[in-house]
Records
---
Amino acid sequence: FSSVELTQHYLDRIQQLDPAYNSFITVTAEEALNQAKAADERIAQGDDSVLCGIPMAHKDIFCTDGVKTSCGSKMLDNFVPPYNATVVENFNRLGAVSLGKTNMDEFAMGSTNESSFYGAVKNPWDTSRVPGGSSGGSAAAVAALLTPAATATDTGGSIRQPASLCGVTGLKPTYGRVSRWGMIAFASSLDQGGPIARNAEDCAIMMQAMASFDKKDSTCMDHPIEDYSALLDKPLEGLRIGVPKEYFGEGLNSDVASTIQAAIKQFETMGATIKEITLPHNSLAVPAYYVIAPAECSANLSRFDGVRYGYRCENPADLMDLYKRSRSEGFGEEVKRRILVGTYALSAGYYDAYYSKAQKVRRLIKQDFMNAFEEVDVIMGPTATSTAFELGSLNTDPVSMYLEDIYTTATNLAGLPGISIPCGFVNGLPVGLQVTANYWREGQLLNLAHQYQ
Ligand code: GLN
């Protein structure tokens, strides 16, 4: 069948099913069909690139030329970028078809997708439950077969945690592997784009398109890019798996724990060895993250001032009123909370006590991982503390929502790659196995995910 037929198939599914999930903010049906037509012509002329004509979707944090890019916020509800993010450009160049933009927590701040200005996303496995966040739209859309794959971003777990809660595969690459140019910044030293798809094979194809060296992002690294698909079939013989004892403590649902333990055990049958390790500073990851991420967000979000672009309040009395009201009316509660926390942490009298301290803890966390990688190749554990929880059960208590990120934030603080692989069900809801590897080992993560699946 043609790309036009395939694209139409997904557009029809989105139209029929997405009212129940709310996983898309914008569906670009006409543009998608035009892209599909162009892809069919390229294929007819012999283009055999694997993504040519394949439909996919972008998280609404990636700027798309001529298509609204809201970042889940009222602040950018009227923002139509005049350019594409490098990631979007990479997919366009290969002839992929974009179905539209997926829903997300406002400015990617959240773990439940309930902070979106466009309303919560519902988990396709049980629509009374959250899909996780912040890339919940991408994960839910893939899980509900509304798109074969989607781009996403991960600052403290936003690819891996929704992938876990929606029963799909999500890869957070090494910091610097994927260009952040045109990806709306939340916390610049932690943000990284990556794919969500149904399995490792599809993630490998997505990752091949996303990974690139980009001079326009000064933190993007010029490091050789592996052939991810070629690595999928490598046998796991001799793989050394570390399981941190800190990952199985208080707060982890016991059924999730036994599902994860059984999944890890299965790698033994594929020739891997399992060893208990320690990441002594893991419990400090959430506190350090929730100082560093808000600090960086308070600086990044200062650009939304009602002047340059985005929301502007009505009839401002003067410039100060314009700033104040545009920001008070344009940002949601969670975003405001983070700006306040971040501004406080960076202020003159408190900088050393909070920000500087958090940066020191960050180094200790990274050192824990480096010590562990002296002994083992990869680290395995749960992605999330539980399966998908009920909508509305956490969004009234920010601290308990932050604690949900206990397994994912350390990876970002260290800049390491991590993956969440579907590994079973508890009471009919999916569970994700998280695997963390050393820098630039995306290929290894995809390989072991493929062998497991
Ligand atoms: N849940 C985390 C937060 O709220 C992570 C979000 C993310 O990775 N974008 O900050």
---
Amino acid sequence: FAQDKPFKIGLILPMTGQQATTGRQIEAAAKLYMAQNGDTVAGRKVQLLVRDDTSLPDMTRRLAQELVVNDKVNVLAGMGITPSALATAPLATQSKTPLVVMSAATSSITEASPYVVRTSFTLPQVSVPLADWASGNGIKKVVTLVSDYGPGIDAEKYFSQRLSANGGQVTEALRVPLRSPDFAPFLQKVRDAKPDALFVFVPSGASAAVMKQFLERGLGKAGIRLIATGDVTEDDQLNAMGDGALGVVTSHHYSAAHPSPLNKQFVQAFEQANKGLRPNFMAVGGYDGMRVIYEALKTTRGVGDGDALLAAMKGQVFESPRGPVSIDAQTRDIVQNVYLRKVERVDGQLYNVEFDVIEGVKDPGKSR
Ligand code: DHB
């Protein structure tokens, strides 16, 4: 019987290289979830098989293939960056294996396979509310600076369209390479253009570098405001960015400073289990992804069939450390609150302090 065998989750993450913080955050969160909720669900022992894809999509696909064919995993999960998720989606379809995307955030990923379920966020979801905030706060001319791949292009497009609809204007749209970017020449261009604000999206692992160079180039002192998606002020690296980051306004779905009782418990437990490491939005994507898998396994009474699990993942509604969320049964994408936050010093540490919320935001990329 299937019930006598372990239930296997193949968790593929970048554990080395630029995206290594994504891997360490999600792995730690998945392990915390299992420590808190037990490793036996519906009578089956749950096994987590963690693999490092070094964020190379060919490697992600090869590891996924091995996990499905040799290890016979019931669920694939992780996916640090968009190209990894897109490379793995066809295999999820062919093998009818649910693919729980815990990190990658390009809108179209959920459309690449009917077996994708997402617990992270999308860039359109957070970029539109930031454009509205900017327009409401005297920001008219903006230069955008994004990583030149899926999520960056989504962020640029949805921010820019919304700002224009509000009567503002993106005067220049700059794109930097995903890997080892040198921001200096781009930031010099921004300094010369003197917009009201610079809007930035770079993936979490590249954010400390962009912040450092923004500050070194003196853009803030030149009167150019930095506004960004929360990837740029993510909680794993925020403290290390220093006081220059104070006052930066971002929009995102998770802050370690989110003031709910559930989040306070989550942050405390995560820090305690990980030598004081603060959880960032990747950790919450991983933690909630495990919740979605555990609940699907319970609902299906441990049978472990891919189609049954997928059906039981669709439509889940629960409270996350980030706030109330649901998995849209039609799109399989996450519906969640988007918060506006400002970097502030709290008890001697830098945090993204939430000051406004837009509730129950669906991915705007799906309403085309
Ligand atoms: C993606 C990766 C990130 O690290 C991030 O912060 C946002 C999006 C991605 O590749 O989809």
---
Amino acid sequence: LFFAGQALAGDNDWLSPVYKEIFQNELPIPPTKEKKYSYYNSTTNRYIDYYEIEIKSFEQQVYKGLKPAQLVGYDGISPGPTFRMEKDREAIVRFVNHGEKDISVHLHGSYSRAPFDGWAEDVTSKNQYKDYYYPNRQAARTLWYHDHAIHHTAENAYYGMAGFYILHDPDEDKLDLPAGEYDLPLALAAKQYNSDGTLFSPADETVSLYGDIIHVNGQPWPYKKVEPRKYRLRFLDSSISRAFKLTFEDSKAKKLPFNVIASDAGLLTKPVQSDNLEISMAERWEVVIDFSQYKGQNVTLKNSRDVQADEDYNSTDKVMQFVVGNTVSSDQGNGNLPGSLRNVPFPPTKSGVDRKFKFERQGGEWKVNGVTFADVNNRILAKPPRGAIEIWELENGGGGWSHPVHIHLIDFQIISRTGGRPVLNYEKEALKDVVLLGTSETVRVIARYAPWDGVYMFHCHNLIHEDHDMMAAFNVTSLADFGYPETTKFIDP
Ligand code: C2O
Ligand code: CU
């Protein structure tokens, strides 16, 4: 027998015990993180909210009758608690490490200035803490915080260190999109378990760990009771190696159309209708879906990417189920979607390519332009002057792997994709911070390298590739280096 997943995983023991409770357990919603206190920052004339997160171990009973899985998460849960923040309200978050391994925290989607960006070597060891400062000056968007420790990111994220960080702003609030209980964060994650019920470790993997148990918000194959109305769903793929192609299907396998409304960097220019959604590691895509036609029925969220076919095993073609009730208790956000959502701040257009980066496996190592992150003298591959608009070409060097490439600090616009898929319709209306390079694809992205100077990472977000050093850095150089007067002024991206 040959299974797609077997080839993907690269070894023979990729199968978890069969999970028998598909769509029988309720979707968990991570609790909202409460601040400890606020204080006035007289330098910025703003209030700062102060939070504390404790990294600690916990157990999760995934399989009835087998051993629990041992996990380590933010505040001892996974996903971690959800931060719900308002634009222009700064935050300091103290991460206290009561786990065993070194950690580093990256707020993915924030233009956090170094040294608050989760630089992989800036680790916080056991029984230490670090305070991270988050400016929260970007427009409303779905961010996530996750571990970024050098050579342990895959393990740390997989064992639980990932959570949502949702930024709101008044412009988005005015649109009256589905909110409150009608706004659901959904973190997808694929994991693998040992025959005794414990979690299979990614520590020895060098290529990928796809995982055959599909979790949403930490629960394998959950269900969620919904009302027959519109919902906003915030998808995040927090898997370490698995990408998805999602569809919503009714009991007759008919696909429900939905509107894609937001990406990694917040709202699109306008809602884009689709009946499928491609999402790879670290990407966020948000949709509005209307369950009003499905009173008393079930709608299944399915996956058609890299599916394992044999019924004796866990089927990765299913994700979760929506159990649609008969009554609507509120009409908040249930009207027609606005025709346009916002003026997305796309960078000004220009021609040419400023830099080229090739992501490929060479001599058994994962590299960017022939360099690994371990090559400390050569890993700074670009020095954009602060504020510069640059076009970067990201090329998949081949070999059969896809690479979701993430550039820290900036939001980019995808201007072309060749060698496979085109730029997707919803990608065209979006700013992004991760883009998937399919197995033979080349993508060009344009961005303004702002607002801060400093050294930041860019890397493949297949966390096994990242941990094996498919990661490099760029140094946003201060204007003084280029003959301009030095200034600490914020350059709005
Ligand atoms: Cu989501 Cu450098 O990471
Ligand atoms: Cu990769």
